[in-house]
Amino acid sequence: MTTRQELDPEPVPRRTFFRDKVIEDRLGAYVYFLVHPVTKRPFYVGKAGGLDAQGNTRPDAHLSDTLDALHRLRPLSKKEQVIADLWDAGLEPVLAVARRQIESEDTASEVEATLIDVIRHFYDDIEGNKYSGRHFDRGLLIGDGIAARVSAPVVNPTIPIHDVWVFNIINSLRENSPRQRGIMNPTNDELYNAVRGTWTIGLPPRSGFAVGLVGGIARIVCRVKQWHKLEEKGKTRGLVRFDGEILDSSDPVGSALLLKDFSKLTGACPSWLRKWALRFSFMGDGQAIPTYNKPAGLLSINLG
To answer: Is the pLDDT of residue 290 over 80?
Structure first.
């Protein structure tokens, strides 16, 4: 007697995830998963839609590429191997759309990178994707890693740094940056123009360094090359501005001061609340000596 199994032909692997014609604008640019139908675990993340993402039916290419590899007996990628193993077991990968109608290719890339990083961490790996998400400096942070990447340590240089001028630049950024963007993501030019002044200082300033604070954190560090006196009627103190060189973390002074928390210093000096500039000398031994607008009787500040 012939069984039903003998009558049924061997199942043919699917060549498309889309059984009907796609309404293109219902998908738009989108990010998708390929999911194992039994474990429910994503094994590949991709993006599709638009010319750059190779079309709205881009996921079908993974099926046709796997079939082509099997027919040509070429080595399978990890993603193709998962698909082939599913077919051998009489199963099919499941397409899941994570986000659709995404506004731009750049946004789709960010969503794709985020999902790859998250899945790779929580599932130990994601079999089908060769690489981690893009923009590693903006990637996944967990536990203590959050503080290590986004928190500012208290400023405490291990090298002597003298004549460090400290300025609050938040108001200048608000006034001069379009759409308030400069406060959240200021450019180097915006930071430099904010920190160089105009400042009211009641004595001839010495060259040294200048630090611009936003929320107590040093967002820019400059080596001062030259101070310029400015004239304005009715001012009893001198108006000054400096020309300088921006220092980044590759410079020893820049590394010691940039993105550090100066709140311990500004909090010890009430004149900071009156929006006055401060100046300090760091001794390199955990002590900072206030040298301008310092409180009476305050000789040094312990940074440890």
So the answer is: yes
- Give the integer Cα–Cα distance in Å for 176 and 66: 55
Strand 161-168 and strand 199-201: the pairing is unpaired
* Structure token digits, residue 21: 């014609």
Q: How far apart are CA 154 and CA 203, in angstroms?
A: 29
Distant-in-sequence, close-in-space partners of 262: CB < 8 Å, separation ≥ 6: 155, 166, 211, 213, 216, 217, 218
More confident residue, 228 or 204: 228
User: Can you tell me the mean pLDDT for 202-219?
Assistant: 87
Pair of tokens at residue 167: 């300025």
**Torsion sign over Cα 190, 193, 198, 201:** positive
**Per-residue confidence (pLDDT) for residue 3, from 0 to 100:** 39
Contact 36/84 with Cβ under 8 angstroms?
A: no
When pLDDT is cut at 50, 70 and 90, the band that residue 222 belongs to is very high
pLDDT, averaged across the chain: 83
The Cα angle at residue 30 between residues 29 and 31, in degrees rounded to 5: 145
pLDDT for 278: 95
Rounded distance between C-alpha atoms, residue 219 and residue 152, angstroms:
10
SS3 state at 254: helix
Question: DSSP letter at 154?
Answer: B
Angle at 91 between CA 87 and CA 97, to 5 degrees: 105
- Structure-block tokens of residue 190: 């915006």
Closest C-alpha to 35, from 90, 88, 98: 98
